[in-house]
Specification:
By secondary structure, this protein is α/β, with parallel strands linked by helices. Helix content is about 50%, strand content about 10%. Among the domains are: about 100 residues, Gyrase A, domain 2, CATH 3.30.1360; about 60 residues, no CATH class; about 120 residues, Isoleucyl-tRNA Synthetase, Domain 1 (Orthogonal Bundle), CATH 1.10.730.10. Strand 8 and strand 9 form a beta hairpin. The structure holds one RNA strand of 77 nucleotides.
Length: about 575
RNA sequence: GCGCCCAUAGCUCAGUUGGAUAGAGCGUUGGACUACGAAUCCAAAGGCCGCAAGUUCGAAUCUUGCUGGGCGCGCCA
């Protein structure tokens, strides 16, 4: 079945074409742009088009006249389609469409027929998309900011997958370079400390407590031999340990990468050398008097970057920029036609450079989309939680996960536009309000499951599609809910097109909200399970459909859709005391 | 100084390609459980969509300027 909006779009387009044929509209009407929108008010129908406004302009008539012509033509087309019940005109010139029972029937049939596959589309036509996210340096544990990027990347990947892309989740590991050396040097000092020797963490080193713990672990393992290890060796050992920890954190967050791509691989393969030499031979890069190799400013000019950029430092090390260009080239060589990177918003100035870099390798920079994720403010009772009381102290992802749980954290991290700052109040997220939509949606799903359980216990047949039952779903709320379910695929497509997962969270909340309202309104007058077996079967069918869509959508978010919720969070008295204690620092 | 992002209800935020009387949650006030889950629902109050021009049948949405916030402009990542 076609998407609801598509149904109306096609009817309008055909109506316009027919109108041209019959001389009602000028030929230019064929190319007129129009919208199909969800009206805000129920009396304006299910979907509306503004097509009469541009048509009126072409005709030199007022919009109401053009709308009337369009209505008559659209009515004929709608009659052939069968999914539209009525077409009306409303001032100042909107043409409003109301869906038919057949629309609802076909929709429900599709939900039951496709089950967990309902909502998937083939917009991507199997195109290969690479979603690179997190990619934090293995020099420390993940913090909340990484957590947000992790969820946004993971959900975008799931959304694209549901929209027909072949998706690969990738983590780029900067396992080489100055930062890794700094880690090794810091570790070296902590080992001295553990041995009771004088020590000094380098100024640009890592001061966090975790380095001390790593040192202790190494000393416990190797004893005195730890002190003899070279910085390079310590760098390798430490970053490997930290990368394992990062992997564990992500896994407990429900995130699994297909590829862990190591920067060192690019070096050992000689890819960076080849890249730099190639750029030099084509005159795009040049040797600087100081011994560095620069990418000429011309390369970046069309992207808004007008400075020479360093590829190889005068000490001979390649910059991250050089390896990033080689890395993106590598991704494209592996056959991806879309590259999606999730970055912290503070890296936005880097985008023109990377686009320029892609261009210099002879590829189309338009294949790259960057999702900029803004920072997360961690709060408790509205007050900021200290993020850097002393150097190296921050709220780790692991801490947040253990406090609020995986599902809540996932929803909070992707419930806002990625480029908007996010306040993450640990207390609010433990509450059960719409500020914490995970409980709202999970409760809704569990509630529906509870109804279905009760029906099953009474020996009723489980929800199933039956076209003969559709007319029984005659309440306005029931029709509205079915219509809304039919918009689920479009909600996914919107997320895919904008690379913004938050639309899905809103879709879920609005859908379950509508069900909650329906449930409560009729709980004493028109319950799902009643004496009327036909009506009961029809309403169970509706519940089953809502449940399927909710479960599918929550699956894309990576959030559990529980069949029951037995425990009541937030009621535990010990919690208050612990919060008070934490506030002291 | 140059560039990017942001500004919508008391608070946190939605608002699709420009559409009809700008929405939701929280908070406030007042209501709804003898029945399938009240972790829910209903209602009220609450708005110069930062300011000012422009574009047009129509602007929260597009253009320009201004104000106020965040970020970037390293041989850092």
């Amino acid at each position: 079945m076609k998407a609801p909006r598509q149904i109306v779009e096609e009817i309008v387009r055909k109506a316009v074409a027919r109108g041209i044929e019959r001389g009602a509209f000028p030929a230019a009407a064929a190319t007129v742009g129009f919208g199909v929108d969800l009206p805000k008010k129920a009396e304006h129908g299910d979907l509306a088009t503004n097509a009469a406004f541009p048509l009126a302009k072409l005709l030199g008539q007022n919009p109401m006249e053009a709308a009337e012509k369009l209505r008559a033509l659209a009515l004929d087309e709608a009659g052939m389609d069968g999914h539209i019940e009525s077409v009306t005109v409303a001032r100042p010139g909107f043409v409003n469409f109301v869906f038919s029972e057949q629309f609802r029937s076909d929709g429900l049939r599709e939900i039951f027929a496709r089950g967990s596959g309902f909502g998937r589309t083939d917009e991507g036509r199997g195109a290969r998309a690479n979603v690179e996210f997190v990619s934090a340096n293995p020099t420390g544990p993940l913090h909340v900011g990484h957590g947000r990027g992790a969820v946004v990347g993971d959900v975008v990947a799931s959304v694209l997958s549901a929209c027909g892309y072949t998706v690969s989740r990738e983590y780029y590991v900067n396992d080489q370079g100055a930062q890794i050396r700094n880690l090794g040097a810091s570790l070296k000092e902590r080992i001295k400390e553990a041995a009771g020797e004088p020590f000094e963490i380098p100024a640009d080193g890592y001061h966090g407590e975790y380095v001390r713990e790593l040192a202790a672990e190494l000393v416990a393992q190797k004893g005195g031999a730890a002190g003899a290890m070279a910085v390079e060796e310590l760098s390798g050992w430490g970053s490997a340990r930290l990368l394992e920890a990062i992997g564990r954190d992500l896994e407990s967050f429900g995130i699994k990468f297909d590829v862990w791509f190591r920067e060192s691989e690019l070096h050992s393969r000689g890819a960076i050398k080849v890249l730099v030499e190639g750029l030099k031979s084509r005159g795009l890069a040049f040797d600087d008097p100081t011994g560095a190799v620069m990418l000429g400013a011309e390369a970046g000019r069309e992207f808004g970057d007008d400075k020479d950029r360093v590829l190889v430092k005068s000490n001979g090390d390649a910059t991250y920029f050089a390896s990033d260009v080689a890395y993106h080239e590598d991704k494209l060589k592996r056959g991806f036609s879309r590259l999606i990177n999730v970055w912290g918003a503070d890296h936005h100035g880097y985008i023109p450079r990377v686009r320029a870099g892609i261009k210099t390798t002879g590829r189309d920079p338009a294949v790259l989309d960057v999702i900029l994720v803004q920072m997360v403010n961690v709060l408790r009772h509205g007050k900021p939680v200290a993020m850097s009381k002393r150097s190296g102290s921050f709220v780790t992802l692991r801490e947040v996960l253990s406090e609020v749980g995986r599902d809540a954290a996932r929803v909070v991290f992707c419930m806002r536009r990625p480029d908007a700052q996010l306040d993450f109040d640990l207390e609010i997220v433990k509450r059960r309000t719409l500020d914490n939509p995970v409980f709202y949606m999970q409760y809704g799903h569990a509630r529906i499951c509870s109804i279905l359980r009760k029906a099953a216990a009474m020996g009723l047949t489980p929800p199933a599609y039956d076209s003969g039952l559709v007319p029984k779903l005659a309440l306005p709320e029931e029709r509205e809910i079915i219509k809304r379910l039919m918009f689920y695929p479009e909600a996914l497509l919107l997320c895919a097109r904008t690379l913004e997962p938050h639309h899905l969270v809103f879709y879920i909340n609005e859908t379950i909200g509508e069900f909650h309202g329906y449930y409560t309104k009729y709980k004493n007058t028109a319950r799902v399970i009643s004496e009327d077996t036909q009506l009961t079967a029809a309403r169970l069918m509706l519940c089953g459909a809502v449940r399927t869509v909710l479960a599918n959508a929550m699956g894309v978010l990576g959030v559990e859709a529980p069949e029951r919720m037995d425990s009541m969070p937030g009621d535990d008295a010990g919690e208050e005391a612990r919060d008070e204690a934490k506030e002291e620092d």
